[in-house]
Design goal:
Its cofactor is Mg(2+). This protein has 21 helices and 16 strands. It is an alpha/beta fold. The chain has an eight-stranded mixed beta sheet with strand order 1-8-7-3-4-5-6-2, with helices on one face. α8 links the parallel β5 and β6. The radius of gyration is 24 Å and the shape is globular. The structure holds phosphoenolpyruvate (PEP) and magnesium ion.
């Protein structure tokens, strides 16, 4: 195997041919080029794990100090949330709520009762929660950034130190950080923060999600090499290639950033619907997670419907199964936000990185290969059946005709069984293509269901046997891998033979260049977070049908992910 420099995000991209050092490499998560002086986020406080034993008589005072500090931090975050909008406001509010979390506060009080200072108690209580979340892994592990963030804010407050995190820049900067907490990113001003680079994080980290929402070029997972960059030094970042140039030519850097800003302006003014340069329509849909998200997506006017409603995200904190009525109420909100338009509901994808208290097997040795997705219904179909009842109930009076798909389908029997459950309730059944076996069995599966939606995040994870959350495996968890493209083509071909639609709803659909390739492979719709759609629409509009077909052909037969990307780039963007 030839070792690709990309394998280690902290490794420079290889030998440079001129005097300039090779760019540092991370994972590009929001396309666009920015060139500005670097500014590091304020360091996190030093955290003691031990300290003097506090005499019993002084412990109440420590508790009071903690309460005051926590309340100050919560108020500050709430104040910012009131000034922010949309998702940023929700993130700030959620972080403020975390500061008031009873379990965490009780744990801090318990440590103080055993004689630690308020600072040490805050650190120890948080460590326990972080360890628990890391053990669960996946999305829960990503929540540890939020926990550590509130810990740092409270500790700084207890010590009378300035708030850690993002300083307020006076001129445009590229923000550098080890990692950014949601509360840091939510308050960003995109006029001043022109780019973001973090040492840690992956494609689905909060930094990536928020940067995408603001359209700020962003590179994550750049590793420890980033620390060589000093505050104030000019850097150029390419959020598509994941590159960070540490000594760019100032004039060229300015010109590239300007050109990129022009493309971004086109993206901002794009209104849809998506058509290729030859006028071929491509359906663009939104990924949503609840009624509020659906309304926000609908308000952009860009999506033609919902391509993935991740229902499990509505119930991450539910301790018991929500009633059919409660579920129906939530689903109805989404149908109403997109009335008359296509809405693809996904049944609960519980387990693995999205554990639900009422539908996840405890203590599985290998949760991503365990009882997750539709598998939760194998032994106890009740939860799935009641969810489908709730979807059918939610339809009443809305005129919606939802398409309802199951995650993690792997066999023909599963598709047949699931298809019947939906049809019995008057729902249109489909399955997600996330397990390679499902792509291989496309023709057989489509005898039992009406559509496919390809979940490229999991399809890539399972095709490449590489954990989608492992940033050090990003070379493998890359949907440009030719093996993954071949599986996508197999599913799309099966759809064409059966004359049934095949969409993509994984992150791959949000990559404008890859979106062209997916269309060339025969995919009929693309679904992504609403803020990502305009860039996809602009890119499709600049490509002819012939270029799209040729790029797909070249990518699927390329020897490596990088070669697939390069050949598609040359054909679509380079006009070759
Ligand atoms: C996917 O796997 O691509 C997908 C869309 O599902 P999720 O990311 O929610 O697992
Ligand atoms: Mg999935």
């Amino acid at each position: 195997m030839s070792v690709d420099a990309r394998f280690d995000p902290a490794t420079p991209a290889g030998e440079s041919t001129d005097a300039a050092p090779a760019p540092l490499l991370g994972i590009g998560v929001v396309a666009g080029i920015a060139a500005s002086p670097a500014l590091w986020a304020r360091p996190r406080p030093q955290l003691p794990t031990d300290g003097p034993v506090v005499p019993e008589a002084e412990r109440d005072e420590q508790k009071e100090r903690f309460d005051v500090a926590a309340a100050t931090v919560a108020d500050r975050l709430k104040g910012r949330s009131e000034k922010a909008e949309g998702h940023a406001a929700e993130v700030l509010e959620a972080t403020a709520a975390l500061v008031t979390d009873k379990g965490w506060r009780r744990a801090v009080a318990k440590h103080i009762d055993s004689g630690t200072t308020a600072v040490v108690a805050t650190v120890r209580a948080t460590d326990t929660f972080v360890a628990k979340f890391e053990k669960i892994g996946g999305l829960m592990a990503e929540r540890t950034t939020d926990l550590k963030d509130i810990r740092d804010r409270v500790v700084a407050e207890l010590r009378g130190e300035p708030e850690p995190g993002v300083p307020s820049p006076e001129e445009p900067v590229i923000l550098l950080a080890e990692d950014l907490a949601p509360a840091d990113t939510a308050g960003l001003d995109p006029e001043l923060v022109r780019g973001i680079v973090t040492q840690l994080g992956g494609k689905t980290s909060h930094t990536a999600i928020i940067a995408r929402q603001f359209g700020i070029p962003c590179v994550v997972g750049a590793g420890s090499a980033l620390t060589q960059i000093q505050d104030g030094s000019l850097i150029l970042i390419d959020g598509e290639a994941g590159e960070i140039e540490t000594t760019p030519d100032p004039l060229k850097a300015e010109a590239r950033a300007k050109e990129s800003a022009e493309v971004q302006a086109k993206i901002r003014s794009w209104t849809g619907p998506a058509v290729t340069a030859d006028g071929t329509r491509v359906q663009l849909l939104a990924n949503v997670q609840d009624g509020a998200g659906a309304r926000t997506a609908a308000a952009t006017g860009l999506p033609e419907g919902v391509g993935l409603f991740r229902t499990e995200l509505c119930f991450l904190s539910a301790q018991s199964e929500p009633s059919v009525e409660t579920q129906a109420g939530i689903y109805r909100e989404v149908f109403e936000a997109f009335h008359d338009q296509k809405v693809v509901v996904r049944t609960l994808d519980a387990g693995s990185d999205k554990p639900l208290a009422f539908a996840t097997m405890p203590d599985e040795p290998n949760p991503s290969l365990g009882v997750r997705g539709v598998r939760i219904a194998f032994d106890e179909p009740g939860v799935l059946e009641r969810q489908l009842d709730a979807v059918a109930e939610a339809v009443k009076g809305t005129g919606a005709k939802p398409w309802v798909m199951a995650p993690m389908i792997a066999t023909v029997e599963e598709a047949e069984w699931y298809g019947k459950l939906c049809r019995d309730r008057g729902l249109i059944p489909g399955v997600m293509i996330e397990v390679p076996s499902a792509a291989l069995l496309g023709d057989e599966l489509l005898k039992h269901v009406e559509f496919f939606s390809i979940g490229t995040n999991d399809l890539t994870q399972y095709a490449m046997a590489a954990d989608r959350m492992a940033s050090q495996l990003s070379q493998l968890t890359d949907p440009w891998q030719p093996a993954v493209l071949k599986l996508i083509k197999m599913a799309a071909d099966a759809g064409q033979r059966a004359d049934k639609p095949v969409g993509v709803c994984g992150e791959a659909a949000a990559d404008p260049l890859l979106a062209c390739v997916l269309v060339g492979l025969g995919v009929t719709s693309l679904s992504a977070a609403a803020p990502a759609l305009a860039a996809v629409g602009v890119q499709l509009g600049q490509a002819t049908d012939e270029q799209i077909a040729r790029a797909a052909e070249a990518a699927v037969s390329a020897p490596t992910a990088q070669a697939a990307r390069d050949s598609a780039f040359d054909i679509i963007k380079g006009g070759k």
